[in-house]
Amino acid sequence: MNILVIGATGVLGRNVAPRLIERGHAVRAVVRRREQAQFLQHTGAEPTVGDIFDRNSLDDAARGCDVALHLATAVPKSGVQDWSLNDRVRREGTRNFIAAATSHGVKRYIQQSITLLYGDNGQAIVNESAPTQPTPVSQSAADMEDIVRASALEWCILRGGLFYGAGTGRDDEWRQAAWQGRLMLPHDGSDLISLVHVVDMARAVVTATENAPSGSVYNIVDDEPVSYKRLFTHVAAQLNTAAPQAGGPKFLPSLGCSNAKIKQELSWQPSYPSYRSGLA
Fold it and tell me: Which of the ends of the chain has fewer CB neighbours closer than 10 A, N or C?
């Protein structure tokens, strides 16, 4: 298939593009600057200069493509609270990308989304039938999903858990905080978190690109929702540092998600079933 990818230079896209190429697909990757093209060319992708906010450039990119993958995000750096650009990518950018895909006969469409849309569910494990409870930060993701659903494309939405793994910086932050004695448990540490290694998220994107039925939604998470206490204690033990203390601020909802649907319907299995192997 001829596959158009936007967000190909991001942490997820960098893992997706070469895997698609290895499976015999032709990948056209939208990049904002020509200097971003070198790595993609090296993997065998065809870079094309464009911008998710420039509809005309997306029209040029979409010609001749069978599938469009929206993997673009603009997540602010740690400690920065301005989510406006990410909101714009999700709303305006998604409209532009879908419009370009539709006008040039693209049939299939894969949208990266987030499990955080389910909100705080305490100790419950939720699946794709659970209602969404968007917060001000995640509302744009809910709006993005609505835009996708309203399209005429054969769409699939992939709700990813919290990314970790090479390039994400998340596990590096945990380890650095543990070394410095700053790794604190949110409240008492009992809240749940659903993780997904970025490699497994990329594999899910490839699987969905090839096999997902139209109108499908999948949680992409590992096999074991984990409490912060268990996760952070594991990180500290790896480094032989003091166990993390309770009483830190709560920064995410307590959310454990099931991956049973994608495992059953698309035969996807995580290479890293839990934080134990993912952080090894």
Answer: C
Give φ, ψ of 69 to 5 degrees: -115, 120
Place of tokens 């006008």: 103
The CA distance from 3 to 17, in Å, is 9
DSSP-assigned beta bridge partners for residue 46: 28
Residue pair 3/21 in contact by the 8 Å Cβ criterion? no
Q: Please give the angle made by the CA atoms of 221, 24 and 208, to the nearest 5 degrees.
A: 25
* Element housing 164 (H / E): strand 162-164
Q: Closest by alpha carbon to 213, among 62, 129, 108, 111?
A: 108
CA distance 114 to 124: 18
Q: Is the distance from CB of 279 to CB of 171 less than 8 angstroms?
A: yes
CA 238 to chain centre: 26
In this structure, what token pair is assigned to residue 2? 């001829």
Quote the tokens at residue 272.
């890293």
Cβ contacts of 72 within 8 Å, gap of 6 or more: 6, 7, 10, 13, 52, 89, 93
Divide the 280 residues of the chain into consecutive groups of 10 and give the mean pLDDT of each group. 96 96 97 83 93 94 97 81 91 98 97 98 98 96 98 98 96 96 97 98 98 98 98 97 95 96 98 97
Contact between 19 and 202 (Cβ < 8 Å) = yes
* Euclidean distance between CA atoms 144 and 124, whole angstroms: 26
Sequence-separated (6 or more) residues with CB below 8 Å from residue 10:
71, 72, 73
In sequence order, what are the residues at sequence separation of 6 or more whose Cβ sits closer than 8 angstroms to the Cβ of residue 52? Answer: 6, 30, 58, 72, 89, 92, 93, 96, 97
Can you name the residues that pair with 165 across neighbouring β-strands? none
| 62: its two tokens | 């979409």
